[in-house]
């Protein structure tokens, strides 16, 4: 026996003697005192090692004191945080005696195995691994006690829609299609302007100003002459078309036909409902063709331009519902839908702009208002989903742990889809009804990786031992 084995054996004997002596002293105390309770606890939960009372990483196999005279804290098997199970009962040991031992693994979890029984440098026995404890499918088997200590929980894979919300800022803008200008197609003069100012609301057909133009009067006289001469067909239609080409109001043409009188000036009317954004017309001014005299915008439908992060752009589509909440109107919200996704990306902010059309019948939304938008995204129909906590994501690989029952868990690669509401879509790798681990899965995954590594070392060790020594197992003395 080597010196190391002697030291390990002596330490184990001393530890056993210390525990026996401590238990014997406790049994000598009265049965109704606090020490008797401690004795009963020691009988039911014998310490497997002792730890520094301050929680420092200092351990001992036998009772020990600190430098200032305090006792080390006894750690029973139930309080040990390692993956190894406490000593099995005799019945279980007898059952395992009928099974074949494949190899022995390091008790501290190191990647070191042996085909024969041995001890580590601290004198601890290597742990036997039996047939069936590790499987070729990569699964790991845990006892009920270990599952309870790790807090592992499982949930079935279900089908349900995924709902998620993208939150982004935006601003209110005018609808470009609802802006019009009032301009003349001829040289003329503004005789008078109606009592309307910038910011006021006007209705379609409301007079804005009175305009005089020699060209307009000449066209009106020609049309009136054709009417008086009893012209019909193309001749009368051509005379009327000249007035229409000069954009003469339809009401002015009808008044000419009814009164047979040419007015000195013609009332110019608002082309649509809306607010006056710009008024350049003043009394007596001379206006040339194309000069903008009024600019009018209809705000009953507005645009909300939202900047969406590049990573969220793929979840947005035309028609996606959006809820808009103006910061200036606390408690109010407006519903709209995505009408356009602009084709260019902002290189500085890495955002894409989308346009949302929002009805604004009360005109509470004003241009340039800041808003907070919530874009509803997700899957329109139910899909396979699991809780987000069930996914083990390393960045390059996504996997889940399948609960196969009876304490056996199998890792499986999956392909993910959309996320939302605490769930993630499983595009490939799972079937409905399978149970996946949702909590403590990283601990089970660590155990699985450890056993896979140990299995690899064991196979390599057995292969190397057979190559080097023929029939002699690796580690045996020549």
Automatic annotation (TrEMBL):
Gene3D superfamilies: 2.40.30.170, 2.40.420.20, 2.40.50.100. The keyword Transport applies. Residues 180-297 form the CusB-like barrel-sandwich hybrid domain. Residues 385-444 form the CzcB-like C-terminal circularly permuted SH3-like domain. Keywords: Transport. It comes from the Bacteria. Residues 302-377 form the CusB-like beta-barrel domain. Belongs to the membrane fusion protein (MFP) (TC 8.A.1) family. PANTHER family: CATION EFFLUX SYSTEM PROTEIN CUSB (PTHR30097). NCBIfam families: RND_mfp. This is Cation efflux system protein. It comes from Bradyrhizobium iriomotense. The lineage of its organism: Bacteria, Pseudomonadati, Pseudomonadota, Alphaproteobacteria, Hyphomicrobiales.
